[in-house]
Specification:
The complex is a heterodimer. Chain A is an alpha/beta fold. Bound molecules: flavin-adenine dinucleotide (2 copies). Residues 97-103, 120-123, 128-131, 133-137, 139, 278-279, 307-309, 311, 315, 331, 333, 376, 419-421, 446-452 of chain A line the site of one flavin-adenine dinucleotide (FAD).
Chain lengths: 587, 417
């Protein structure tokens, strides 16, 4: 009863509204109506912070709540459900919902065992959610609070990455990170630290607090760097940096490459991957799921893993175990031309306390291909699919992080984009058996550092499934290795010569910016790419400075030829690129 | 590995590269043209409209016609042309330039004493002008659409918004209109179209294509497919006027917002780059800061007329000849600097001890009636020439007597007054 009292106390503070709550097994359901979306988020977060709350389902509506759209979406799902609930696709031990890094990692981990596994992804490709739009940083685990699951899995996941990279052969670089401490670091507290005390604290106290935080979290090896050493490590670091903390474990990857590699390896080990397959509901018997209903029909199953990213809450609700609401948090990232790579060696951040609300946690990092990325921002958005970028946010990123480096060609932006973090109100990963459904495992709230934690998340999830009764018998034929698509860009002329002799398409450069050949594109298609963006994620065709201006048609022509679809019908991500044929009058 | 040894290798088989190769062959040098596309002709292949060659041939040819005159001449002269061959790396090895290229025939190594780069331009992207919103299917650049429509017979959409009022934007608008696009709107931030008056009449007004000056795209809207764009009016300084945002429904947005030289290979090689043109810094024979490496055509800066692009190639061919015959250079180059009313100027300096008069190309940053284009040294005006008008959309060509430049070793400033 103590819990309910605490929740009511929070709600009382919003006395102008008629809010109510209900608590079941540690999950708080909130009801009522507030004026703004911001308040909706705020209330959810306040309740989520209460000790003992295991989940917040925020059913409060706000003025402007898109009730019509929600109804349409449910209507649509119901229609698809009714049309497909009678048609069985197959029968599986485990169905994994969601083809992001979380779902693909779990599927691949499960493929070690003698199980029939299906991975369902609603988009035409894996890695189209948060997994395609993040920094690609493998954090060490210093930041998350000690008591969180995030912390535990992040620290472990980071250590597991090197092995993953070796087995799955994705680009992985352990560049380390450098957190700068500058006169701006404690600006807000300056008045408590008069005169030289301020600099002393920044130089000799704060860095060790950070190192200590690392040790508390289980991350050793952090080092304090001062003076010239900072600039030896990072020549363009802010001139006024007083000290820095070096984290040797931080690495960088191409996040979509990781997920694609996982999916390919999972498939090679028997996982059936169904893209363009959207889960719209469940067939249940009592508190047990019997089948997962999709637009392709029913996947009968014994266990279900919910790794649906921002939609995990809706999947949980469809399954009958709503235990959390996702409040999407958008982040904008700005990507720079490869020529800027020489300015940045480590993942860089400037420690600012307290973290500013719109940009907390962001910084500057290199990418495995030599580009540089700035960001992200952090903005609460009501729409789960809102990946639009406000140009002002680009300006904000450019202004905010420019204090990290003394010099940088900020005009060499080639692209900006946004991703949406699937945050729950308890702000931690939710990886546990559903409370009210017997055979459903939640893997939800996988916000940052979800990528860094992925290997540990997969292991942890499989262990949970075992605890739920799934018997795991090792499969002797499991092959942990996956070969990447060779790339002309990384080849010596002799190797290129050899490949061209065998297949002349290795000598046909399609994307000039990133030096991608027809052979690479054909191979990506052979491995399952069905869209221009899927080809792009696997080969980098279109990722350079002209952003596909020169190669888009060529890539689309190859897709059209290989898949046997007309050019106008080739998909970008989910929609066709073009619209039919000309009338022929200008000829 | 296929080894090819030549006096000169030309990278890029567009009109400028072809012109350079033709002139070099006529001067008696052995040359090879290396082109990454399937055919020679560069950007002209997709320019099926007419208007090419008015200065050079005195008639308005279509793009492919203009290109084929050079391609034929190249054949007559027996110059090797390697299509589908992409130069990936260039190195200086023992005084020779070695270009590594890949082609379906294998890896090639071209060895030569001089290189002419003629790699043209790429289109500026919507990111470079900070357009917000999403990037669903339906967001393209104008050159891409021109290729799509003219070479593949495919339409980008049915209701198309064109961003940019330059020549390329207008030409693409007319094509889309003729080819069955149902609704078109052209928007641009200037008070009037930035392209040639002839194109305004023949591409826009004659067909009654709607347009909105002083308007830009703030955001693209749509999740999977473009659903529309948020337009906003701008003031004289191109700053958005708050409260004038308007949603315009469409299914494709086509950007025609400028061209950027394809100079990244030269940049990687260490050639000096002009931040104004984003192309290489060159001397009066269009030689880059790397001895024996020349740059011509749109790679210097986008030209309005292919005829001017081709002229730079002819001049560079003479420069190659000077380089190969070991002619003397000045001890100190003489800088040519743009004045306050000049947005960009090529070439950037005079470096050879003797030679032809200096051909300058400049783009004004202002609009003027009856302007003077003046050339000054610290001692005062050296030279001027008059024009009926000057405007940013018109590239000016000025022939500057060499002796005048040589008399001011500290450099000259070129301006529009
Ligand atoms: C801007 C930004 C920067 C970040 N930076 C980092 C970083 O540097 N390091 C780090 O470790 N983490 C980072 N993160 C977090 C990281 O991106 C995520 O934790 C991770 O990608 C989550 O993967 P996921 O598989 O859980 O979700 P997603 O990648 O979103 O995958 C979920 C999938 O489920 C599918 N799906 C949804 N509903 C259905 C349905 N009904 N039927 C079938 N399929 C469905 C979706 O289509 C989607 O593909 C960042 C996040 C953002 C937004
Ligand atoms: C849409 C449009 C309309 C125009 N309309 C007119 C008009 O009406 N009248 C007029 O006079 N002018 C017009 N112009 C201008 C004129 O076409 C250009 O000035 C001229 O084409 C420039 O020629 P170029 O050879 O420098 O470049 P391009 O024609 O672009 O040729 C460059 C070539 O280099 C190749 N290349 C690039 N990199 C490599 C590499 N690494 N290895 C090998 N090859 C490489 C490219 O594939 C390309 O073929 C127009 C231009 C455009 C874009």
């Amino acid at each position: 009863m103590g819990l309910e009292k605490k929740v009511r106390k929070v709600l009382e503070r919003y006395s102008g509204y008629n809010l109510s709550c209900e608590i079941r097994d540690g999950v708080v359901f909130l009801y009522g109506r507030v004026r703004s979306y911001e308040e909706w988020v705020e209330i959810g977060l306040e309740v989520g912070r209460i000790k003992g709350v295991e989940g917040v389902v925020n059913k409060i509506v706000w003025d402007g709540y898109p009730a019509e759209k929600v109804r349409e979406r449910e209507e649509r799902r119901r229609r698809i459900f009714e049309e497909n609930k009678g048609r069985v696709v197959g029968s599986y031990d485990v169905v994994v919902i969601g083809g992001g890094v979380t779902g693909t990692a779990i599927a691949r981990e499960l493929s070690r065992y003698q199980l029939r596994i299906a991975l369902l992804e609603k988009a035409p490709d894996v890695a189209t959610g948060a997994t395609k739009a993040n920094n690609g940083m493998i954090h060490a685990g210093v930041e998350p609070p000690r008591s969180t699951l995030k912390r535990k899995l992040n620290v472990k996941g980071c250590r597991m990455y090197e092995r993953w990279a070796r087995e799955l052969n994705f680009k992985y670089k352990r560049v380390g990170s450098l957190w700068l401490i500058t006169p701006r670091t404690l600006e807000k507290y300056r008045r408590f630290l008069p005169g030289p005390l301020y600099t002393l604290v920044l130089k000799y106290v704060l860095p060790y607090i950070v190192v200590l935080k690392g040790i508390i979290n289980g991350v050793r090896g952090l080092r304090v760097v001062r003076g010239r050493k900072i600039f030896e490590m990072e020549p363009y670091a802010a001139r006024d940096a007083l000290a820095a903390v070096y984290v040797p474990w931080t690495a960088i990857v191409d996040p979509y490459e990781v997920a694609v590699a996982l999916a390919e390896n999972a498939a090679a080990n028997g996982v059936e991957i169904f893209t363009s397959t959207e889960v719209v509901g469940f067939l249940k018997e009592g508190d047990t799921i019997k089948g997962v209903v999709t637009n392709r029909g029913v996947f009968l199953c014994r266990y279900v893993v919910n790794a649906a990213g921002v939609y995990a809450d809706e999947i949980a609700e469809m399954a009958g175990s709503p235990e959390y609401t996702i409040h999407p948090r958008k982040g904008v990232l700005v990507l720079f031309h490869r020529s800027t790579g020489s300015y940045v060696r480590h993942c860089l951040a400037e420690i600012i306390l307290p973290p500013p609300p719109r940009t907390k946690g962001g910084g500057i990092n290199p990418t495995p291909h030599g580009n540089v990325m700035w960001g992200p921002t952090a903005v609460e958005v009501p729409d789960k699919e809102d990946v639009s970028v406000d140009p002002e946010e680009v300006q904000l990123v450019l202004a905010k992080y420019s204090t990290i480096l003394s010099e940088f060609p900020r005009d060499r932006v080639i692209r900006y984009f946004a991703g949406v973090r699937a945050a729950t109100f308890t702000e931690d990963f939710v990886i546990r058996p559903a409370k009210w459904v017997r055979n459903l495992l939640h893997v939800a709230g996988i916000q940052s550092p979800g990528l860094a934690s992925a290997p540990a998340i997969a292991e942890y999830a499989v262990q949970k499934l075992r605890e739920m009764g799934l018997e795991l018998r090792e499969k002797p034929s499991f092959n942990p290795f996956r070969e990447p698509i060779p790339s002309l860009r990384d080849m010596e002329p002799e190797q290129a010569e050899e490949l061209i002799r065998r297949d002349s398409r290795w000598g046909h450069v399609v994307c000039e910016c990133e030096l991608v050949t027809e052979a690479e594109i054909v191979e990506a298609i052979r491995r399952g790419a069905r869209t221009v963006d899927a080809v792009k994620r696997r080969t980098r065709a279109g990722m350079g400075e002209c952003q596909g201006g020169r190669c888009l048609i060529k890539v689309a022509m190859i897709l059209s030829r290989e898949l046997g679809v007309p050019l106008p019908a080739v998909l970008k991500e989910e929609a066709p690129l073009f619209d039919g044929y000309v009338r022929g009058e200008a000829w | 590995m296929i080894e090819v040894g030549k006096d000169v290798v030309v990278v890029g088989g567009g009109p400028s590269g072809l012109a350079a190769a033709v002139r070099l062959a006529e001067l008696g040098y052995s040359a090879a043209v290396v082109e990454s596309g399937d055919e020679l002709g560069g950007i002209l292949i997709q320019c099926i409209h007419d208007g090419f060659g008015t200065k050079l041939f005195g008639k308005a040819l279509s793009g492919p016609e203009f290109a084929s005159s050079f391609i034929e001449r190249l054949g007559e002269l027996g110059v090797e042309a390697w299509t589908r061959t992409h130069v990936v790396r260039v190195r200086l090895e023992g005084g020779s330039w070695v270009l590594t290229a890949v082609s379906p025939r294998g890896v090639l190594r071209f060895k030569s004493r001089a290189v002419v780069y003629a790699t043209g331009c790429r289109e500026r992207t919507p990111f470079e002008i900070r357009v917000g919103g999403t990037r669903p299917a339906g967001v393209y650049t104008a050159g891409l659409v021109q290729r799509l429509v003219n070479l593949y017979g495919v339409l980008p959409g049915r209701r198309v918004l064109i961003v940019g009022g330059g020549d390329v934007g207008m030409i693409v608008a007319r094509h889309l209109h003729l080819e069955g696009v149902e609704e078109l709107l052209v928007v641009f931030p200037e008070p009037w179209f930035a392209g040639l008056p002839r194109n305004v009449q023949q591409c826009i007004l004659d067909f009654g294509i709607p347009f909105r000056p002083r308007t830009i795209v703030k955001e693209i809207v749509g999740k999977e497919r473009v659903e529309g764009a948020v337009l906003v009016r701008v003031d004289e300084k191109w700053q958005p006027i708050k409260g004038t945002e308007e949603f315009y429904p469409c299914d494709a947005v086509v950007f025609s917002v400028g061209l950027v030289p394809n100079a990244s290979q030269l940049e990687e090689l260490g050639a000096e780059i002009d931040p104004r043109t984003r192309g290489p810094v060159v001397n009066e024979y269009f030689e880059t800061s790397l001895r024996g490496v020349f740059a011509v055509g749109n790679l210097l800066t986008p030209f309005d007329y292919v005829d001017d692009a081709v002229e730079t190639a002819f001049i560079a061919a003479e420069g190659v000849s000077k380089h190969l015959s070991g002619e003397a250079r000045r001890d100190k180059p003489i800088p040519l600097r743009p004045g306050p009313n000049v947005r960009l100027l090529v070439p950037h300096r005079v470096e050879w001890a003797s030679g032809r008069d200096v051909t300058l190309f400049l783009r004004p940053s202002v609009e003027r009636e009856n302007p003077r284009i003046s050339v000054r040294s610290s001692g005062g005006e050296l030279y001027h020439t008059r024009r009926r008008y000057a405007r940013p959309s018109l590239m000016e060509r000025v022939e500057l007597p060499r002796g005048l430049v040589e008399s001011s070793p500290e450099g000259v400033v070129v301006d529009v007054e």
